[in-house]
Amino acid sequence: MRSFLLKRLASAIITLWLLASIVFLVVNVLPGNVGRKVLGPFAPESEVIKYNARLGTDRALLAQYFTSIKRVFTLDFGTSYQFGTSVKGIIFPALLRSGKLALLAFVITIPISIAAGVYAARRQDKLSDRVIVNAGLASSSIPEFVTAAVLMSVFAVNFGIGEVYANPPAGTSLLGQLQYLMLPAMAMVVAYFGYIARMTRAGVIGALASDYARTATMKGMSKGQVMWRHVLRNALAPTITVISVQIGYLIGGIIGVEKVFNYAGLGSTMLTAVGSKDVPVLQGAVLLVGLVYMISTLLADLLIAYLNPRVRLETKR
Amino acid sequence: MTQSPLDGSGRKIGALETDLINSYTKGHLSRRQFVTRGSIMGLSVAFMGTIVAACGDDKDSGGTSGDGTSTGDSTGAAAGEIKQGGTLRIASQKPGSPLDPVAMDNLGSYTPVVTAFEYLVGKGDGAALAPMLAESWSPNDDGSVWTFKLRSGVKWHDGKPFTSADVVATLDRLAPGNLQAYIVEGAAKAIDDLTVEVTLNAPDGQFPAQLGVYNPQSVITPADYVAGTTLDAKPNGTGPFKLDKFDIATGATFVRNDEWWAGKPFLDKLEFIFSDSIDTQVTGLLGGAADAIVQFSVQGGDAVLSNPDVTVESIRGSAHRMIWMNTREGNFTDVRVRQAVALGIDRQALIDTVLKGKGDIGNDHPIAPVYEFWDSAQPQRTRDIEKAKALLKDAGKEGLKVTLVAPVLQEIPQLAELIQSQLKEIGMEVELNVLPYEGYYDNWCKVYDSTVAPAGCDGGAEFGIVDYGNRATPDVFLVKAYATGEWNSAHYISEPFNAAVAEYQASLDLAGRKGPISTIQKTATEDVPYVIPYFYNSLTAYKKNVSGIVATGLGHFYCGTAGFLA
Fold it and tell me: N or C: chain B end with fewer CB closer than 10 Å?
């Protein structure tokens, strides 16, 4: 287990470095220079030059690159070009907001989807299975921001159920906050239900057809016992992997939903940073998302290894 | 006259004021122009009222605001009492830069800053000015020195008294940048605790307008507010509400300032909810998350305009779009081609379609009808397809093919499409190149160096649309877009035009401005380096149960006398 962990950590660090480098390259390839972006198109050129000198954005690209990589590894996220405040003060609250929404979305989606997947697998090819599979396929095909806009329009604006802005006013109780996050979370549920349910269904069907499941049934175990003790822990591996990847996407990628509900999540923060060439904020946010991906995939791998001893043992050669 | 007369309150009436009064009594000015100009000069409303009455011209004497508060504009008054208390939730634009009063440059930053801080000169009725932190002001005989008498008893939110030291410090901070055309550091002197004397670089009869709402950076900040201080780092101000909480990503909360000099405000709290786009602000208003929206445009605001539960205010201004044509090289060097374009568009149709009627028609010059020196006698250019075709033929440019660049900004893409179809009717083939807002201005003027003469704006496209915001005076348009070249995307140089601009700037009263402005309008329209089809209104909206709001179209959303109706 230890060598497994160490190897994973080493690759994580290399991935982070690659990520930081790519972000730096991409942002510096965009048109416009930082001083001009921040001061606007009507500022005199002399002011722009002064500004760039102050920030060090007029130095050679290589020098800027080394500074930014050094900062990444000393966890010094730096200061925002656009706002002059610490990057941490911008990206950590955004992460918290995205995290709350992701948590709510998953707390609802995971149990429902897995249950539906198991249910469908046990009734394979019957009507209920077909309904779940096709409904899931249809709902997952709709882009989540479209679902978000429709939900907002129908429920919040038309029926007055739920809120048009997902960010609760300061001081709202935890239960009250749920009310604000419910509609965007439901948009995510609709988008991911089908995907996770189908993954689960496929895994369960495969495990049900395996020889160990057949052996357990022939030994005299009840259907429920077979499912719980043997099938699920083998069937869920792909589903767990998929969910762990989706967590990262939910934290940093659902800009559409954030925009519809005026929710200042990490995705929107990154978009603003791209537009204003705010490299420190962008780098910090992307790294944060990268970290979330890495932690969630690591946890997923650990969970799978725990559930399935073969995985654990296979790595020890 | 050797003796200087006094008005009823003991304020000296100098040469400039006398000229103004004489112009009015001789009938050269309308009552409205007299009152507007007089307010800029610092004449009191009461005094002007007596003159108006003496001339027997008082059929509209109730039109000007009777009291001295700048926020006491009667437009918001509805039938019903305003009740004490309540929190007003306002959908506003997310600040795009720190809340630094001197350096801020976007509407999102203006709104919170101008809620906490105030100006020397406030907004009166229409385009008129009114006392705010300055109770009165007056020029010397040639308008080169202005004296401001400050309001007494005003306190900062931190409890310290507001004095002339704060005004002097603020003006010194603005001298190197924002006010560099008017004053140098040290030009402002404190005569006593409540009197400030400002010596200008050159006489300017409209200087007080630079210390008012149309120059948002001119808010008065405390003497210890060194350059670079932001409102959220050091909350302070003299305004009706104090900053309580600020999160640049989500919003700002202000609480009532019980000691406000104009009286205790009705509302307990203001909650500004930030959004990146106008669409979400509109949704917030209509979906119940907000009670008001600071500013929105006709594009995307349809639902607000047609909503019966919402009051929409349409504020006329000088904001416009310029369609530039390179006069130096390319397809538009011949004035006949440019005139053809100007004659080929249908301005009223543009206003009706793109602005839903909410705008003033433009005549290819930047002198908006809201300016009191606007020459209304100039004939309005209207569409003439036959003449346009003939001009193109004479210039040998029949069937001309050109590319029009435009940014994705508010209604401009739709404007570009309509222009394309309108110009097709005069035989011009216009290809559209609608570009993202980010980085667009490189297509307008790549090089901004004002030290490169004669036209230092180079590298842009030959035909495109650019936006210009609301300004208290047209000076910035006239000088930068038409003359020295920093924004002169048309590379236009005209000695008669520049001479008229110099004459306009040097004149100290309305009568002196009218002549050069007439010339400016005529020359700009004839040479048409820029087609200016309209001046658009800015829109603000609030729920019908809200009253007393005063907005300016430049991010100000004054709630000092606002509240919920009982």
Answer: N
The rounded distance, in Å, linking the Cα atoms of B366 and B364 is 7
Q: Is the pLDDT of residue B127 over 80?
A: no
Closest residue by Cα to residue B62 from B49, B81, B79, B71: B49
Q: What is the dihedral sign for C-alpha A71, A75, A80, A84?
A: negative
Q: Side-chain half-sphere of A290: how many Cα atoms within 13 Å?
A: 20
Mode of pairing for the β-strands spanning B269-275 and B87-93: parallel
CA nearest B218: which of B448, B472, B535, B45? B472
Instruction: Name the amino acid, one letter, at A92.
Output: F
The DSSP bridge pattern shows strands B359-361 and B429-435 to be unpaired
Q: What's the confidence (pLDDT) of residue B10? A: 62
Instruction: Return d(Cα B139, Cα B182) in angstroms, integer.
Output: 14
SS3 assignment, position B403? strand
Neighbours of A137 (CB within 10 A): 13
pLDDT by residue (tens digit) across A81-97? Answer: 888 889 999 999 999 99
The span from the CA of B452 to the CA of B458, in Å, is 10
Instruction: Please tell me the distance from the alpha carbon of residue B99 to that of residue B83, in angstroms, as a whole number.
Output: 32
The highest-confidence range among A236-240, A277-281, B170-174, by mean pLDDT, is B170-174
Q: Any idea what DSSP says for residue B109? A: H
Q: Half-sphere exposure of A29 toward its Cβ, with a 13 Å CA cutoff?
A: 6
DSSP, res B151: P
Distance, in Å, from the CA atom of B227 to the CA atom of B222, rounded to the nearest integer, reads: 11
User: What is the residue-wise DSSP string for A115-142?
Assistant: HHHHHHHHTTTSHHHHHHHHHHHHHHHS
Give the number of other CB atoms < 10 A from CB of residue A2.
7
Q: What are the distances in angstroms from CA A34 to CA A52, A59, A69?
A: 7, 12, 19
Helices B15-25, B31-41: crossing angle, 10 deg rounding = 170
Q: How many CA atoms lie within 13 A of B146 on its CB side?
A: 29
- Residue in chain B closest to A49 (alpha carbons) equals B449
**Which among B124, B89, B111, B81 is positioned nearest to B266, based on CA atoms?**
B81
Beta bridge partners of B292: B90, B542
Measured between beta carbons, the chain B residues lying within 8 angstroms of A160 are 288
Least Cα separation, residue B105 to chain A (angstroms) = 8
| A-B C-beta contacts closer than 8 Å | 84
pLDDT digits (tens, 9 = 90+) for A37-54: 666 666 667 778 887 887
* Separation between Cα atoms, residue B150 and residue B170, nearest integer Å: 14
Quickly list DSSP for A65-98: HHHHHHHHHTT---B-TTT-SBHHHHHHHHHHHH
Average pLDDT along chain B: 87
Task: Count Cα atoms within 13 angstroms, Cβ side, for B329.
Answer: 5
The residues, any chain, with a CB within 8 Å of residue B168's CB and separated by 6 or more, are: B188, B189, B190, B196, B223
Paired sense of beta strands B195-199 and B188-192, if any: antiparallel
Helix (H) and strand (E) counts for chain B?
Answer: 14, 24
3-state secondary structure B233-266: CCCCCCCCEEEEEEECCCEEEEEECCCCCCCCCC
Q: How far apart are CA A118 and CA B70, in angstroms?
A: 69
Question: Is the omega angle on the peptide bond into residue B98 within 30 degrees of 0, that is, cis?
Answer: no
- Let me know how long chain B is: 566
Q: What count of other Cβ atoms lies within 10 Å of the Cβ of residue A51?
A: 20
- Distance between CA atoms of A33 and A20, rounded to whole angstroms? 20
Rounded to a whole number of angstroms, the distance from the CA of B26 to the nearest CA of chain A is 43
Strand partners, B231: none
**Which of B275, B280, B286 is the closest to A157 by Cβ?**
B286
| Residue from A81, A105, A82, A74 nearest A253 by CA | A105
Give SS3 for B80: coil
Answer whether residue B141 shows pLDDT above 90.
no
